[in-house]
Amino acid sequence: METFNLIIQTLHSLARWGLVILGLIAIFRGLSGWMGKKEFTAADNRAGMLYTMVFDVQLLLGILLYLSKGWFGVLSADFGAAMGSGTRFFAIEHLLMMFASAVVAHIGRSQARKAADVVQKHRRAAIWYGLSFVLMLAAVPWPFLANARPWLRLFGFSF
Questions:
Q1: Would you say 126 and 133 are in contact if contact means Cβ atoms under 8 Å apart?
Q2: Measured at the alpha carbon of residue 135, what is the angle toward residues 71 and 53, in degrees to the nearest 5?
Q3: Phi and psi (nearest 5°) for 158?
Q4: Cα gap 96→58, rounded to integer Å
């Protein structure tokens, strides 16, 4: 089980950076298309698709970690104690905020694709992906926060 957790943690850590990069690309493409009144191209569509796809993979990896590390057991054993400790962040807040962020990204992709004109497509993409990105950043356990995790985890090594 320990090897499994190391592999999943490594993939989860790497996917975080993929999400940050793809989120910035999707937002930038949305903003530049909106402000420049550009056509909504296949590349614009692909940026949103990749952002939501990697988010889905990231959620799956996170759920695997959640289940394998026993967060549910921690909550059910003594819910009150878990809510009063740093456990609450990972057991509830991180999971729910990331799920909400992924849902917002998917709504944005759908809204952008359904919009009537190109400016609306880009505007919707920029706004929804931007909101998703902010939620995601707020839920990451950055090294400078109370519930810190390393910048990068690679098979047991932390950076």
A1: no
A2: 80
A3: -120, 140
A4: 13
- Residue 48 to residue 152: CA distance in whole angstroms: 24
Under DSSP, the state recorded for 158 is: E
What is the token pair recorded at 92?
A: 């509830």
Coil, strand, or helix at residue 39? coil
CA-CA distances (angstroms) from residue 39 to 46, 78, 115?
A: 14, 54, 13
Q: What is d(CA 98, CA 106) in angstroms, rounded to the nearest whole number?
A: 12
* DSSP letter for each residue of 53-106: HHHHHHHHHHHHHHHHTTHHHHHHH-HHHHHTSTHHIIIIIHHHHHHHHHHHHH
Q: pLDDT for 96-150, tens place per residue?
A: 999 999 999 999 999 999 999 999 999 999 999 999 999 999 999 999 998 899 9
Rounded Cα gap, residues 95 and 29, in angstroms: 28
**What pTM, to 2 d.p., does this model score?**
0.90
Which two tokens mark 32?
A: 């530049």
Indicate the pLDDT class of residue 72, thresholds 50, 70 and 90. low
Give me the count of residues in the chain: 159
